[in-house]
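Data availability (excerpt). The following record was deposited with the supplementary files.
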Amino acid sequence: MAQEPGAEPLVRRGEEASRGPTELSDLATLKALAQPRRQRMLQHLTVHGPATSATLARALGLNTGATSYHLRELARYGFVEEVDRPAEAGGHGRERWWRAVPGDRRFPPRSRQSPEMRLVMDELNHHAYAADLELFEQMQLRTRGVDGEVGEADPWVDAFPYSRGSIRLTLPELRAFFEEYIGLLNRYKRPEADTPPGARTVLTRFLAFPAPDAAPDAAPENRPAPHDRPGSDPS
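Predicted structure:
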């Protein structure tokens, strides 16, 4: 049910729309994806679009030899691919440009993962979640003005909606909830040519997990309310 972190996880409207979900069950593929530098490179390609190995090296503080190697490995497993040099880009025609390959990539349920695969998945998720949180905090800091005041001139200063809540679901209901979430995201996907002026890439993340069981001796009034929404920001 989980999707691939880092790389563009969803099918763009009108682009590869005929492809259904693809399960990443090959251990070598998962190990290739779990490498932290490759996660950072995929996130950069997703946020900023196609880039060269030199562009990625400058942006991520790496050397071009490392980025070239990791790009080749990502391409080997189908996560990135070469594209034509953008017309607006400088440089010369011999540069190799890469983009993140879109697709609805899923992982096997944890119950079907081998012990080794679980270790790889745990490492992959650890790096992905940490990178997401770091980027979220960085973008929030950029909206601050002088002396920490909010930069109200930035029209995107309120573009940080979040919600924390809880709902009581059966496993089939949770699976249905997840598919509806993916369907909602895909509704808003569209080709670059159909994107209106002023639009920006918005990163979305979904995380759901069962709450720990209440202690057997916990009084009902001390147990969490089933629909409590601490810290919700519905904006």
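Summary of structural features: The beta strands are 22-23, 51-52, 80-83, 97-100, 105-106.
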